């Protein structure tokens, strides 16, 4: 049973505000990759798709004189930290199971290590799935953030993904959360 659907998350004004900033097309595409990978890694597709949809919700726009400044971004970015917190707040507000909200937030926190000190983290499968899903949709120069998708098309794809997740949950029982 799911307390919250992807559609409820996606259509919330907070998600709309920040996902349009980091790219709706990218977020949806990563969520579809996460569904595929969740089967491969045997993780709960509900958590994987939610974390994937929201993984870049913490993005900030780094500009110098009106131009995107990649160097500044690389040096100063903490979008994974901000995103984890923002996603958690949104999920709890929508009535998400608090344990699920925590696992989703953790997967968002660890979807990139660009801001972390060097060294290997032992990631759990859900965290790995979200990271791989993001990488699967990456384009050179960050172009994946600028791909466009029509709002109605986006809604259609989110609804279809909700159906796919529910179908998988009906036939599989997931013991592990993360
Ligand atoms: Fe991303």
UniProtKB/TrEMBL annotation:
<protein>
    <recommendedName>
        <fullName>HD domain-containing protein</fullName>
    </recommendedName>
</protein>
<dbReference type="InterPro" id="IPR003607">
    <property type="entry name" value="HD/PDEase_dom"/>
</dbReference>
<dbReference type="Pfam" id="PF01966">
    <property type="entry name" value="HD"/>
</dbReference>
<dbReference type="InterPro" id="IPR006674">
    <property type="entry name" value="HD_domain"/>
</dbReference>
<feature type="domain" description="HD">
    <location>
        <begin position="23"/>
        <end position="139"/>
    </location>
</feature>
<dbReference type="InterPro" id="IPR006675">
    <property type="entry name" value="HDIG_dom"/>
</dbReference>
């Amino acid at each position: 049973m799911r307390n919250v659907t992807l559609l409820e998350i996606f259509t919330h004004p907070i998600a709309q505000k920040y996902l349009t900033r980091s790219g709706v097309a990218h977020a949806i595409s990563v969520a579809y990759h996460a569904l595929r990978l969740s089967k491969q890694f045997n993780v709960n597709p509900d958590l994987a798709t939610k974390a994937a949809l929201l993984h870049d919700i913490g993005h900030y726009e780094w500009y110098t004189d009106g131009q995107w400044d990649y160097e500044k971004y690389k040096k100063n970015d903490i979008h994974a930290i901000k995103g984890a917190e923002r996603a958690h707040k949104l999920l709890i507000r929508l009535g998400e199971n608090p344990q699920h909200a925590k696992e989703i937030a953790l997967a968002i926190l660890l979807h990139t290590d660009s801001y972390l000190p060097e060294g290997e983290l032992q990631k759990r499968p859900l965290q790995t799935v979200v990271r791989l899903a993001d990488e699967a949709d990456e384009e050179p120069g960050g172009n994946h953030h600028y791909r466009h998708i029509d709002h109605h098309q986006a809604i259609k794809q989110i609804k279809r993904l909700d159906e796919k997740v529910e179908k998988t949950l009906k036939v599989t029982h997931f013991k592990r959360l993360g």
